[in-house]
Amino acid sequence: MFLGTHTPRLDEKGRLFLPAKFRDELAGGLVVTKGQERCLFVFPMTEFSRVAEQLRAAPMTHKAARAYSRVFFASAHDEVPDRQGRITIPAHLREYAGLDRDCVVIGASTRVEIWDRQAWDNYLAESEEAFAEVEEEVLPGIF
């Protein structure tokens, strides 16, 4: 399970050091693709395969499923981290997420998310209050 918040930087070649605590699970290969709210999703290969299977199971007649699948798979980039734990973020994905230099890498349970630092700060500022208010709807009976 991926947890925590980390603040690596992109180098001039578009490479990013994965947080040390995530490297073992991602060492065998990963897929980077567009996520929601202009972040990037990073999946271990096994989790990407599971998500891909769920998308394949959606009916082709469902317009939203087709649209989501097109963007999800067309923007996907598979990679194996180098010996130093770096991955290269392709230019089209850096542009989509607005990644320049300062990034935030968060653990999001079964995936990792990569955010532009300012975009992450803005997202947190906008969603903190809503987070506190929706717990009963999202996790009924837990708290």
Structure commentary:
The structure is a single chain. This protein has helices at 20-26, 45-57, 63-74, 91-97, 117-138, and strands at residues 5-6, 15-17, 30-34, 40-44, 77-79, 86-88, 103-108, 111-116. Strands 1-7-8-4-3-5 form a six-stranded antiparallel sheet, with helices on both faces. Strands 2-6 form a two-stranded antiparallel sheet. The mean pLDDT is 94. By secondary structure, it is an alpha+beta fold. It has five helices and eight strands; from the N terminus they run ββαββααββαββα. The chain is 43% helix and 23% strand. The longest helix has 22 residues, at 117-138.
Structural class given helices, strands, pairing?
Answer: alpha+beta
Using DSSP, what is the number of strands? Answer: 8
Main pleated-sheet profile = 6 strands, antiparallel
Strand content: 15-25%
How many whole angstroms does the radius of gyration measure? Answer: 16 Å
Order of helices and strands: EEHEEHHEEHEEH
Mean pLDDT: 94
Stretches where pLDDT is under 50 for at least 5 consecutive residues are: none
Strand order of the largest sheet: 1-7-8-4-3-5
Q: How far apart, in Å, are the first and last alpha carbons?
A: 21 Å
* Total helical elements: 5
Helix share bin = 40-55%
